[in-house]
Design brief:
Strand content: 15-25%
Number of strands: 15
Number of helices: 14
Order of helices and strands: HHHEHEHEHEHEEEEEHHEEEHEHEHEHH
Bound molecules: pyridoxal-5'-phosphate
CATH topology of the largest domain: Aspartate Aminotransferase, domain 2
Radius of gyration: 22 Å
Strand order of the largest sheet: 1-9-8-5-4-2-3-14
Structural class: alpha/beta
Length: 390
């Protein structure tokens, strides 16, 4: 191997910065291993009902300081149940950001309600509270907020607007369990909030989710819906036993991830082309499932985002695009939008996300991410022209 080849970008045939690729997820975890061994030894893995689901609910209720925890089969189902829990029915309107998880939009349609899309803030690319009031009508039944890619919706502001109009808030914390806003946990701003235990998430059992709420009326409505002599969307004993010990580690691991992101974003702030959606601050303690950045192609010789991502992935760094703008992938008859969703369109084409497993890797990995970005920048013209001529 010659040295020249070693420093060339992997996408042009050079050596990747991380030949082993991005770290996997979930990690091996002795606590989870012990939980699985215990499931085998007791036979609890095969039972309909056992101690693990109730124990997970108790622990989550304590962690979130909330009265009701309703386990379910996925985060997607949790959103549907939350919508049903606040009483969304046909022809109601539900407000959400134009840039959000696709299933959140689909869940609203599934209840034959109308998604009302509002634009996102120009710097954080989270739901823009300034636009919220004008989207509210007599038909608004709920406001759905998702904190995405390490950023935060301004939850106190949403609460204030929602309370003044008597509209319930659904808070999606699938991407940020354990995060804190202004001294209060994410998930404690909604009338009802949703968690995911999906395979890539910070708390994971491969599948699974939960709805949490301080409101007994919401909890009762959801229970009535899911109980049909049998639970229609169950979380299994095995899933619950696997998630349970992860809650004990969550604050510590979130702290490690934040430290990584603080160092990474401060190194990247000396450079151009990648702007963090939200710099960590005292009042906003993120839990990073993805770290979101705004991508500026001009700073990389107009390299399209897709090519930038391919080049970084070839270096072994798990960058990816974010979600699609909901208004760009659904027919306009499916939703209402008060304005042109200009920022949501920018987020659609310009979002870059870094997947979380690398955030637990420490100092060397921070340098690797920075080095990979700089390598791709240095060879931007060559990468771009090589891929134009393919
Ligand atoms: C992952 C996710 C969900 C739901 O996830 P499931 O895979 O269905 O458990 C919901 N909202 C957001 C923002 C998510 O990232």
């Amino acid at each position: 191997m010659n040295f020249q080849n070693a420093e060339r970008p992997a996408i042009l045939g050079g050596l990747p910065i991380r030949p082993e690729g991005p770290p996997g997820w979930p990690r091996t975890d002795p606590q989870v291993e012990m939980a699985i061994r215990n499931l085998l030894a007791t036979g609890d893995w095969g039972r309909y009902h056992g101690p693990h689901v109730p124990e997970l609910c108790r622990r989550l209720a304590e962690y979130q300081n909330v009265e009701h925890v309703l386990p379910c089969s996925s985060g997607t189902v949790a959103v549907e149940l939350a919508l049903r829990g606040v009483g969304v029915v046909e022809k109601d309107e539900v407000i959400l950001a134009g840039y959000d998880f696709k299933a959140n939009f689909q869940n609203i349609l599934c209840l034959r309600a109308t998604p009302v899309l509002v634009d996102v803030d120009s710097s954080t690319w989270q739901l823009d509270c300034e636009k919220l009031s004008t989207a509210i009508t007599g038909r608004t039944k709920a406001i759905l907020i998702s904190h995405l890619h390490g950023g935060f919706v301004d939850a106190p502001k949403v609460r204030q607007i929602a309370d003044s109009q008597g509209i319930p808030v659904i808070e999606d914390i699938c991407q940020c369990p354990g995060a804190m806003l202004y001294g209060r946990r994410a998930g404690n701003w909604g009338d009802v909030s949703v968690l995911s235990f999906g395979g890539s998430k910070l708390l994971t059992a491969g599948r699974g989710g939960a709805v949490i709420t301080p409101r007994t009326d919401i909890a009762e409505r959801i229970k009535r819906y899911v109980h049909r002599g049998n639970d229609a969307y169950p979380l299994s004993e095995a899933q619950a036993a696997i998630v349970r010990p992860q809650i004990d580690q969550l604050d510590y691991l979130n702290g490690c991830r934040r430290e990584f992101v603080e160092k990474l974003t401060s190194k990247l702030s000396d450079q151009t082309g990648l702007k963090a959606l939200q710099r960590p601050s005292e009042n906003l303690l993120s839990a990073y499932y993805k770290v979101g950045f705004q991508y500026f192609a001009v700073e990389f010789q107009d390299m399209p985002r897709s090519l930038f991502i391919a080049a970084l992935q070839a270096e072994g760094i798990a960058f990816d695009s974010g979600f699609r703008g909901l208004h760009l992938i659904h027919a306009s008859r499916r939703f209402v939008a008060g304005d042109e969703l200009i920022q949501a369109s920018r987020a659609d084409s310009g979002m870059l996300t870094l997947h979380h497993p690398v955030l637990l890797e420490g100092e060397d990995a921070i340098s690797e991410v920075v080095a990979a970005i700089e390598k791709v920048r240095k060879y931007a013209v060559e990468i771009h022209s090589a891929h134009l001529t393919q």
